[in-house]
Amino acid sequence: xxxxxxxxxxxxxxxxxxxxxxxxxxxxxxxxxxxxxxxxxxxxxxxxxxxxxxxxxxxxxxxxxxxxxxxxxxxxxxxxxxxxxxxxxxxxxxxxxxxxxxxxxxxxxxxxxxxxxxxxxxxxxxxxxxxxxxxxxxxxxxxxxxxxxxxxxxxxxxxxxxxxxxxxxxxxxxxxxxxxxxxxxxxxxxxxxxxxxxxxxxxxxxxxxxxxxxxxxxxxxxxxxxxxxxxxxxxxxxxxxxxxxxxxxxxxxxxxxxxxxxxxxxxxxxxxxxxxxxxxxxxxxxxxxxx
Amino acid sequence: xxxxxxxxxxxxxxxxxxxxxxxxxxxxxxxxxxxxxxxxxxxxxxxxxxxxxxxxxxxxxxxxxxxxxxxxxxxxxxxxxxxxxxxxxxxxxxxxxxxxxxxxxxxxxxxxxxxxxxxxxxxxxxxxxxxxxxxxxxxxxxxxxxxxxxxxxxxxxxxxxxxxxxxxxxxxxxxxxxxxxxxxxxxxxxxxxxxxxxxxxxxxxxxxxxxxxxxxxxxxxxxxxxxxxxxxxxxxxxxxxxxxxxxxxxxxxxxxxxxxxxxxxxxxxxxxxxxxxxxxxxxxxxxxxxxxxxxxxxxxxxxxxxxxxxxxxxxxxxxxxxxxxxxxxxxxxxxxxxxxxxxxxxxxxxxxxxxxxxxxxxxxxxxxxxxxxxxxxxxxxxxxxxxxxxxxxxxxxxxxxxxxxxxxxxxxxxxxxxxxxxxxxxxxxxxxxxxxxxxxxxxxxxxxxxxxxxxxxxxxxxxxxxxxxxxxxxxxxxxxxxxxxxxxxxxxxxxxxxxxxxxxxxxxxxxxxxxxxxxxxxxxxxxxxxxxxxxxxxxxxxxxxxxxxxxxxxxxxxxxxxxxxxxxxxxxxxxxxxxxxxxxxxxxxxxxxxxxxxxxxxxxxxxxxxxxxxxxxxxxxxxxxxxxxxxxxxxxxxxxxxxxxxxxxxxxxxxxxxxxxxxxxxxxxxxxxxxxxxxxxxxxxxxxxxxxxxxxxxxxxxxxxxxxxxxxxxxxxxxxxxxxxxxxxxxxxxxxxxxxxx
Lengths: 291, 742
Description:
The complex is a heterodimer of chains A (291) and B (742).
Chain A: H1 2-15, E1 22-23, E2 33-40, E3 44-51, E4 53-54, H2 58-61, H3 67-73, E5 78-84, E6 87-90, E7 92-95, E8 98-101, E9 111-118, E10 124-130, E11 137-146, E12 152-161, E13 169-178, H4 186-190, E14 195-204, E15 212-220, E16 226-235, H5 237-249, H6 252-257, E17 267-268, E18 270-272, E19 280-285
Parallel strand pairs in A: 2-18
Antiparallel strand pairs in A: 2-3, 3-8, 5-6, 5-9, 7-8, 9-10, 10-17, 11-12, 12-15, 13-14, 13-16, 16-19
Chain B: E1 3-12, E2 23-26, E3 31-34, E4 40-46, E5 51-55, E6 62-65, E7 74-78, H1 96-102, E8 108-112, H2 128-132, E9 138-140, E10 148-150, E11 158-162, E12 165-166, E13 171-172, E14 177-178, E15 185-191, E16 205-211, E17 220-225, E18 229-239, E19 243-252, H3 254-260, E20 267-281, E21 284-300, H4 301-304, E22 310-330, E23 333-352, E24 355-375, E25 380-401, E26 416-429, E27 436-449, E28 452-466, E29 471-482, E30 484-487, E31 498-501, E32 509-522, E33 527-544, E34 560-576, E35 581-595, E36 605-606, E37 613-622, E38 627-636, E39 640-641, E40 644-651, E41 658-664, E42 670-671, E43 675-685, E44 693-701, E45 713-716, E46 722-726, E47 733-741
Parallel strand pairs in B: 1-7, 11-16
Antiparallel strand pairs in B: 1-4, 2-3, 2-5, 5-6, 8-15, 9-10, 11-12, 13-14, 15-16, 17-18, 17-47, 18-19, 19-20, 20-21, 21-22, 22-23, 23-24, 24-25, 25-26, 26-27, 27-28, 28-29, 29-32, 30-31, 32-33, 33-34, 34-35, 35-36, 35-37, 37-38, 38-43, 39-42, 40-41, 43-44, 44-47, 45-46
């Protein structure tokens, strides 16, 4: 009986078929212009331009790709202009996908209008962004704890004064870099890409009762040969939502289990975010803590 | 003219079981009623009435001569016309469908379980939920699942009652089997609208399922052996003609089947139904019933032949318990008191070396209710009652140890308690010599949660207008309130959907539904044709925020959004309950939309199971004395999906690399391909022995092996490129099963 049942089960499994999947036609995907931007205080504004791509491609099928894929997406040929109270500036191409304005930045409250004509696809996109007031870091105090001979942890106490008259949103970031450079500045810090994001927090001032917003946290596995950069940016609510979406959706497991989301954007007919936040920085070479 | 009131119960003459919704009427005056959920009736007739007739599908009609001295606590015992299983060939005067046609009730389907045993299904085991999914107005979820989407509602808007106890999880094996054992179930009624006032707590449907009571005269059994599971039901008297028991059990042996063929699938489910009933005297009757069922999965180190210490498992199950006391206070007043308990929980355990994780969630209900029926006279019938239930939620308990604690922190979870209360009143008014019948009523419901009270009135109205003796028009309006929500992912099917109560910030769901219909019943063919149209507006529906992460998230509330929805449609049904050839054809044309300010850019979107067309053809055919055939052909428009269409890259936050960000279509903007499928079942009845009857079921699911799409994926097209495809879950699956009775 047992053998009969076993034969029956095997037969049923063999006879059972898996149906052929049905094909489906979806509208052909049209690549869109993707914008990212960064203001370097008293220096320049950088606009990064790439294109999105269909999932019906090798890179799409594999969930993206490496830097080589990214380099293929860089927009090489485009007319990029930014208009503000100071007039219209045509950005020059620093390298493929990277366009730079060296024109003097507008004052806080000034509105920047970005317009891009992508010669590769003929598409035109536009975006507006208001430069918000720079909020300086008030206190940044690192302290060093040597738990073991080779293990280091850094306590950081950071505070800043929140202008209470309007609702503000901030991004607070701490980067480390293994560097023996004697003079630290933002260009050197990100040079050669050996920096690492140690901490990032998105802050809404409505969650704070006090005018002074303070954070105390510990950075693990930071070496005494490292340098630190603390950055604080007063950002728009839209850009805050964009960063919040990225924060919530990061990670392999999240991508599998998260609800679908199309990130918020301020780009008309494109993706990404055109922001003009004006960050404050502090740099530290942690060697001084050993003194 | 004077009146006389006849009251009593209608029973199966052999088993002594009470018959629900049996017809009791006087042909001369046209006055009649049906027995209630406990087989009781009370009928007030003109004093000169000579006889009344009792009918029940599958039983010989019985005519009773009225003797004025003996009209109270009367017991009508009906003889079954045939013992043939599956095919209904009896010619009786009224069927349950005809009773529904003649009543003010619309948007309802009543199905005796013995009438659906020929309907084919996966593995050869009749599944009551799959049968419900074949009715107009009920959309299925994914292929093979037990999810029900009634008139554009969501899956959490169905109240499934088993002997009055809510069942929170109605599916075994991720929903591929329902938790209801066909041998333990007597009868089920689905309300899609025109809700009687006694029901509340969900927006879209009430599925009222009643267990068998057990045979009070003789010991009997019933069961079946299938490829995936076997079942056995035993019933018999505790005290002859006074009380009985029924116990039914079912277990899958998927784990054993896989073991035999040299593979590993350490999963099985089981369920047990049990019921006791005892007639204390002609005016008092007690019922106690329970259901226990679990799904269990356990992988461990020894079975996987792993060196590392590893195990993983889960259990998921329901427990229900109901104690009821029927009391006939006088010949016109009937009352039922109930005590109800329900539990649903799941536990997930995992261990790898020094890391362990335990996740648990549970809901417990403790309830009581009283339902009164007052049969004033042939024109007026009143129903009223009250209920209270305390819901105890533990949405998520997490206990982690080892390095995994860095990623998943331990959390005892919040204890959430909700007291839900309700009171109702319903008046059925049938004016003499009028073409109109009215059912009016209301329900007062409320929920008390921490620092907040919700509640309000829920008006109910049903009106019937007879066009002639065989056709009528009906109209209904129902308002419903729902004080709990099911929190589930729209992207991945997890066994860990959570029931979550209303809170200060999560408001109750509310619906308004209006329906109108035409019904025609052909008296000779015993065939009903009905068409209904409906519009339903739903408020405070819940969805997750875009990008919400649900896995191991202990703050569900902050991820929830509330918005509105509406649905409308047209339903056609042709149903023939009797004869060698019986069955039904149901068709639904429907739309279901959602309106959330924070989803889809604020634009309206279709609900996931907005299927435009649904057609079901269900046929039973008696081929010969020994052979019969059941066939189901279904067609439905594809469910909706939000596929990923593209990607873009942006520098990551550390400016050290690239984050790849997916691009999706608009929410539920893509409709998958339509699906159609044929399932068949041939039944061969072996020769009856004196006390034993058996039958073989030879079935096939998805006869022509066509995919029913459940998602959209990307795969290589074989030419170096890529394409979108829609895979299906199940292809052609043959089955064989053996059912028996003794």
